[in-house]
Amino acid sequence: MMNRWYSVTDYTDQPVNLPSVTTILRVTMPINARAKLMTAQAKNPLKYQQKSQAAQQRGSAIDAYIKARLTKQPARLCPQYAKFKQQIDPWLTSLLNSLSPIWTDQLVYDLDHGYAGTLDLLYDMPGFGITVVDIKTTAYKIHGEALESALLQTAAYYAAWNLNKCALKATAVAVVFVTPYGLTAEVRNGKPLEQYIQQFYQRCRRFASAYTAANV
Predict the structure, then answer these.
(1) Is the pLDDT of residue 214 over 70?
(2) Could you give the CA distance from residue 136 to residue 109 in angstroms, rounded to a whole number?
């Protein structure tokens, strides 16, 4: 997977390139997680590639469907994702029937910590207030490592949103996992959320060190 960079403007309105949140998380992946990934890839490279491509296609298709529904645009989803649609539609209907304003695909960035990204969704979640949401799809079960990575990713978006969007502060994050068998949301706020933010900032520093060393 190629590294992704965002072009934004700095404090003096000069263009600057910042790595994406997902690039930082991938480059600074823990050793045990990277070893597990490499083992799976080496065991059957073709199968690994096919599964990765299928997951990317599924994620893109479902993401497009969700964003189209939430922005009240024509929305269609391939029949092969019908089971996912059955899980998504009640949640989307409840969102659209609520009085909450909804934002999708918001660009956020943090010049000081050196990252950028696009958050999936932001809305007023009952009981939690304005919540930054990241949507993930998986064919089977939710793995702990995937959850931790997703929470770090969403915490990074949350911190950058609150840094740049002063008029509307977020108070929580949620990772929504969609499988053919159900939809679950993992919500974090308060101290646990702050801990994820600090963990992500550490990953930013590790990325900066690795990138600097590679380009010396």
Answers:
(1) no
(2) 21
